[in-house]
Amino acid sequence: MAESIEKLVRRAKKGDQEAFIALMESQKLSMSRIALSILHNEEDAADAIGETVLAAFSQLCTLREPRFFKTWLTRVLIRNCCDLLRGHRRTAPMEGLGEVAAQAPDYDRAMDVRQSLSQLAENDRLVLTLHYMDGLRIREIASLLDVKEGTVKTRLMRSRQRFKKIYLGQEGDCT
Q1: CATH number at residue 161
Q2: Structure pTM?
Q3: Are residues 7 and 26 in the same domain?
Q4: Contact indicator for 124, 35 with CB cutoff of 8 Å
Q5: DSSP string, 61-121
Q6: At which of 74, 94, 114 does a domain end?
Q7: Per-residue model confidence as pLDDT tens digits over 64-117
Q8: Most buried pick, 1, 28, 48, 160, via CB within 10 A?
Q9: What is the Cα Rg of the chain in Å?
């Protein structure tokens, strides 16, 4: 039976390395999605995730509430991604996402969705990824991005509209 995140955090804070590894494994897919949505490059995403894991390992003791672990970890990851972007000052195409999309039941649709997402602005991609792929609630996203819930709702609405326009435009091009 899988342990809850909160229990794993408590164990990891006490120095249990297996609990820390289990925590990182439980967040691996979420971190990959977020890093790729910001950085568009698997190597950079891997670097940001690596830095995030190191930061989590060394700073886990500063986390006061174990129930906020995912939010805390996501903030650290976003900060690391932004640091990488500032350092590189470049954008790269989203390569290698075929492996992720191949795991989806409908490969073509998954690729269309990924391609449409890649055409959105970073803020649009981030809010859609956090809400739909990572399953975060509006309140959690607001806390994570340090904005009001109304702002998140507005961003989601506008991001969905922009995504729909791009996605449906691609479908029309195929016929």
Answers
A1: 1.10.10.10
A2: 0.61
A3: yes
A4: no
A5: GG---GGGHHHHHHHHHHHHHHHHHHHH-------SHHHHHHTSS-HHHHHHHHHHHHTS-
A6: 94
A7: 899 889 989 999 999 898 888 877 544 444 444 444 444 445 556 666 777 788
A8: 48
A9: 17
